[in-house]
Amino acid sequence: MPGKISREFLKIQDEYLQEETRRKSITDISGLPPIQEDIYLWQGDITTLRCGAIVNAANSRMLGCFCPNHGCIDNAIHTCAGIQLREACAELMKAQGHEEETGRAKITPAFNLPCDHVIHTVGPIVGSRLTKKDEALLASCYRSCLETAEKNNVKSLAFCCISTGEFHFPNERAAEIAVKTVKEYKNNSQSKIEVIFNVFKEIDFKIYGKLLK
Q: pLDDT over 90 for what percent of the chain?
């Protein structure tokens, strides 16, 4: 659980993580070709993306994944950012006094990640069947992330595939909601924020490619 961290540990950890980042192939948003105006589709590891902020699909405790070595994006982001990210999230949760509600968003620094910030959102967990409430909550995740980004002067935002995978939201419907919500937000607000739809799996790359082209 979150606790006090010695300067000695942080120095070693940060040097290690920053060296690991240097060894990776960092992708800068400035080098990506847009698929539509201010919208990008990119397949790769979100922890290697240099942009204003990346979105983390968090759990309601907002403290990272509790399963060591688990393959979820929450674990990947917390691992590469360093344990300061859990501390920052713990401070937010302590101030809030309750677990994070589904569909909301919170922002933290990115620490050892190449991006500037991490925006954390809790997506809906789908049960035996997908409901209209699940769809509305997922749309709220995307809107809340965009609103949080703009309130904090974030110029570019990379979305992961929120709620798919461990939270069992059907990939195709999740992508439809993501694209529709982002486009509606940008049209209604006249926002110029750059949005990257980041996918890891080939199936999601094909789904988003079809929707955006």
A: 90
- Three-state DSSP class for 132? helix
Element (H, E) at 93: helix 84-96
pLDDT at 93 over 90: yes
- Residue pLDDT, tens place only, 139-170: 999 999 999 999 999 999 999 999 998 889 99
Distance of CA 188 to the CA centre of its chain: 23
User: Whole-angstrom Cα distance, residue 100 to residue 165?
Assistant: 20
**Separation between Cα atoms, residue 183 and residue 83, nearest integer Å:** 35
Task: Give me 24's structure tokens.
Answer: 């990776």
Question: What six digits make up the tokens of 44?
Answer: 């790769």
Whether the pLDDT of residue 110 is over 90: the answer is yes
What pLDDT, in 10s, does the model give residues 7-66?
A: 999 999 999 999 998 898 899 999 999 999 999 999 999 999 999 999 999 999 999 999
* Among the listed residues 147, 168, 176, the one whose alpha carbon sits nearest the alpha carbon of residue 57: 168
Query: What's the distance, CA 114 to chain centroid?
Result: 14
Interacting residues of 99 by C-beta distance below 8 A, sequence separation 6+: 60, 61, 62, 93
Residue-level length of the chain: 213
Pairing of strands 105-109, 117-122: antiparallel
How far is the first Cα of the chain from the last one, in angstroms, to the nearest whole number? Answer: 44
Phi, psi angle pair for 159, to nearest 5°:
-95, 135
pTM: 0.96
